[in-house]
Amino acid sequence: MDNMLRTSDILDESNPILRKENIDVTFPLDDKTKKTINDMLEHLYYSQIEEYSKKYDLRPGMGLAAPQIGINKRFFVVCHEETENNFKNYILINPKMISHSEELIYASEGEGCLSVNRDVEGIVPRYARVTFTGYDLEGKEIKYRAREELSIAFQHEMDHLNGILFVDHIDPKNPYKNKDYMREI
Q1: What gap in Å lies between CA 81 and CA 183, rounded to an integer?
Q2: 111 included as an active-site residue
Q3: For every one of its 185 residues, what pLDDT tens digit does the chain have, with 9 covering 90 and above?
Q4: Which among 8, 24, 116, 134 is least buried, having the fewest CB atoms inside 10 angstroms?
Q5: What is the chain's Cα-based Rg?
Q6: Going by C-beta distance under 8 Å and a sequence separation of 6 or more, which residues neighbour residue 181?
Q7: CB 153 within 8 A of CB 80
């Protein structure tokens, strides 16, 4: 816990690193990259448990992409609370979205981002279901199908790898544009 990734290690939306091109990761991974990925997951896990998020002053988050901690490489992690205090970790290195549903959804509370330290009104259209491929820590090919909240998280983190923040999807003049064509979750 002493060397834990802190809120202050996460770049703010004003940092140009978040908009830079991110390069593919090469395998085998070095120990530093493996440790970074584990540190990212640990941060997300503790941030979602109230006792720890208060103790360590962590903003709750379920996903984190490499550029958010200043690494311009193509990987992200998601720590998803499937049931009360039961989390599943996802690691996606060099991810690709290979298919998606026609149906669009949006998060009723709005999307949040550990790099956007302000309240943002509006909806972000996302696919209800997505399939991603990528690689795990050992360089083995993996495939994940994600639905609903997890689908939103995967798309949000993938955007980071393409230099896009969720706020870019919101029309400032009409933040709830096309809401009637999407399902709220």
Answers
A1: 21
A2: no
A3: 557 898 899 999 999 999 999 999 999 999 999 999 999 999 999 999 999 999 999 999 999 999 999 999 999 999 999 998 899 999 999 999 999 999 999 999 899 999 999 989 999 999 999 999 999 999 999 999 999 999 999 999 999 999 999 999 999 999 999 999 999 99
A4: 8
A5: 16
A6: 104
A7: yes
Residues 6+ apart with CB under 8 A from 48: 60, 61, 62, 79, 81, 87
Is the pTM for the entire model greater than 0.90? yes
Do residues 144 and 92 make contact, with C-beta atoms less than 8 angstroms apart? Answer: yes
Token reading at 24: 């593919």
Residue type at 89 in one-letter notation = N
Residue 170 parent element (H or E):
none
Q: Which of 82, 103, 141, 157 is catalytic?
A: 157
How would you classify the pairing of strands 104-106 and 129-135? unpaired
Q: Which two tokens stand for residue 86?
A: 């039961």
d(CA 151, CA 146): 5
**Tokens encoding 101:** 């549903």
